[in-house]
Amino acid sequence: MGSGIQLWPNNAGARLLAAEAALDLGDTERAMIELREATRLGREDNDAALLLGRLYLAQGDFESANSLLRRHVESRGFTGPEAHLLLASAAAQRGRLGEARQWLEELREHEAFEGRAVAELARLQLRASGAQAAIQTLEESGLDLNDPRHEAAARQWIGLLLATGEVERARAWAEQVAESDSPSLQALRGDLLTDLGEDIAARAVFEAALEADPESGPAL
């Protein structure tokens, strides 16, 4: 790791590789040093600002995280949902719920990540106004909660229904998706059955989900 940096001290890619190696070794301090250099040297060519922003956020330095994550979005454009989710988290941690919502609404414009964005919007609403308001956010979002693309929002909704004692509504959803061929929805259905104490039925659901997708993390 060190020899590569000595050979290419001004190479942003080498700095990024060194940071990733340091993280693998558990050396967060060294990783952050390398990521700062990688960000300085090539902010438009790599995800160093995104990685460094994530580390600052984990350390509770929300202002630094916000600055770096904004830089990433401005320099790289949209490269995936993570930057927007982290920016929303950094804003929420600073009590700026309106700013957090703006980042999530922007993420929602990307159809593939709409369910995830709405799930996080509901999480913000839960924090601000309680469970019923969060449920309303999900139900008024316009999302089809039986659609596998929106599994993250469905999972949030089911959890809130159980937390507020609306068990029959959750059970009705499970019946609606019983014939779905989506491993992710079936895994969520299995989780719900587990929460309801129906372990035998849940096991059958998980096994069926794994038959459809042996790599299904939730079902495993």
Mean pLDDT over all positions: 90
Cα-atom Rg, whole angstroms?
Answer: 21 Å
Profile the largest sheet.
none
Care to count the β-strands?
0
Principal-axes shape call: globular
Run of helices and strands? HHHHHHHHHHHHH
Binned, the helix content reads: over 70%
Structural class: mainly alpha
The helix tally amounts to: 13
Strand content: under 5%
Q: Could you give the distance between the termini? A: 36 Å
- Stretches where pLDDT is under 50 for at least 5 consecutive residues are 1-5
Please explain how this structure is put together.
This protein is mostly helical. Helix content is 72%, strand content 0%. The protein is built from 13 helices and no strands. Helix 2 runs antiparallel to helix 3, helix 3 (28-42) runs antiparallel to helix 4 (48-58) and helix 12 packs antiparallel against helix 13. It is globular. Residues 1-5 have low confidence and may be disordered.
Summarize the structure.
This protein is mainly α and 220 residues long. The protein contains 13 helices and no strands. The longest helix has 16 residues.
